[in-house]
Automatic annotation (TrEMBL):
Protein name as catalogued: SOS cell division inhibitor SulA
Database matches in InterPro entries: ImuA_translesion, P-loop_NTPase, UCP037290
Length: 240
């Protein structure tokens, strides 16, 4: 076996498009750092992949799952353009996002109900060329929808993160990276890498995160009474 590996070594050095199944591909396009060194070490390219979908599968809310994305999103919000969220499950807590470093005036929320509308909004955002980051929430999606999103993502230099229910773990997906999130011990977030370019991941990661309280869903926002006067808070753009 050692002799066989020695014979293959010169070939593998000349062909950057071939990688051994036990290795991460060295030729992976550089990714965008996630802000979590332990996670970046396990991702081909050293961060969120660009030009393809990343799926985040989770049924938990309020366990720090948004903290997984905040370091990257905070950096993206400081560049010229829009940080787009399509149909998040609840209204973002803007003061908490601002405290985490996200420049909220660049945050654009698109509220769409049906899966086809959400996919359409995601594709339009990708094709606009005006985004610095993009995340969407899809509770239902078929393979054709995901393939359309994957094709649209290939033409952009951005990470495209898609939140989907945990039970979709068994469904096939064209996404190049699939993560499953679940609550971990001692305020940690458990991250299982279900799919990535290269060898499969064998052990979960436990990331220290901060939990964010979420106000009521977008469908029933809590509004102040006129007597309460104006509430000062960071700006946000919402499209319904």
């Amino acid at each position: 076996m050692k002799h066989r590996n020695a014979a293959l070594a010169p070939v593998l050095q000349q062909r950057s498009d071939i990688w051994a199944a036990n290795d991460l591909p060295d030729s992976a396009q550089p990714g965008i750092p996630s802000g979590h060194p332990a996670l970046d070490a396990e991702l081909p390219g050293g961060g969120w992949p660009v030009g393809e979908l990343t799926e985040v599968l989770s049924d938990c809310q309020g366990h720090g799952e948004m903290s997984l994305l905040l370091p990257w999103m905070a950096a993206a919000s400081r560049r010229e353009g829009w940080l787009v969220w399509v149909s998040p499950p609840a209204r973002p807590h803007l003061p908490a996002l601002a405290a985490a470093g996200l420049y909220t005036p660049r945050l654009l929320l698109i509220d769409a109900e049906r899966p086809a509308e959400r996919v359409w909004a995601l594709r339009q955002a990708l094709e606009s060329g005006a985004c610095t980051g993009l995340a969407g929430w899809l509770d239902k999606a078929d393979t054709a929808m995901l393939r359309r999103l994957q094709l649209a993502a290939r033409a952009t230099p951005l990470p495209v993160l898609l939140f989907r229910p945990a039970h979709d773990r068994q469904r096939p997906s064209p996404a190049g990276l699939r993560l499953q999130l679940s609550p971990g011990p001692a305020h940690a977030l458990r991250v299982d890498i279900l799919k990535r370019r290269g060898r499969p991941a064998s052990t979960p990661l436990y990331l220290r995160t901060r939990a964010f309280s979420m106000p009521p869903p977008l469908s029933s926002p809590s509004l102040p009474s006129p007597a309460a006067g104006p509430i000062r808070r960071p700006a946000l753009t919402l499209i319904a």
